[in-house]
Each structure stands twice: as structure tokens, then as C-alpha cells.
Specification:
By secondary structure, the protein is mainly beta. The chain has one helix and six strands.
């Protein structure tokens, strides 16, 4: 899957939290941002409870690809 976040130049919040609804609580997921070289692993239960939070500088965007951990 893919999460795409964008921050407008006038946005005051430096981070955003998304709550993907199609993920399964019993699975573990790997999130990768290839542009930043960042990787995170989260459980589906943690994603349902707290969501996926990431920070962006003003007037920027990020793509996070995710998949079920093997």
C-alpha cells in the first residue's frame, strides 16, 4: 500500500497522523520512505489505536510504502 502526505506552506502542525482502516490488527507492517531512507515497523493493532505519525517540513511531501511483514 501507499500513504502520501503533503504539508502546505502555511500549515502550523509539523506532523500528521493517519489511521489506515484496511490494515489487520493481527498483522505486522513495514513502512518505508525510500526518499528519506526511513523504515518503521508497526503492528496493525498499534496502527488502529494510535495511527501512523510522521513529520514534514513546510511545503513538502512524503510517500510511505507499506506491506505486511513476512
Amino acid at each position: 500500500g501507499l500513504l502520501h502526505g503533503m504539508r502546505h506552506k502555511s500549515a502550523t502542525a509539523e506532523s500528521m497522523t493517519v489511521h489506515p482502516e484496511v490494515l489487520h490488527p493481527e498483522s505486522d507492517y513495514i513502512f518505508e520512505n525510500p526518499e528519506a531512507g526511513a523504515t518503521m515497523e508497526l503492528s496493525g493493532a498499534a496502527l488502529q489505536h494510535g495511527g501512523f505519525t510522521f513529520s514534514l517540513p513546510a511545503r513538502s511531501a512524503a510517500m510511505w510504502f507499506y506491506r505486511v511483514r513476512d
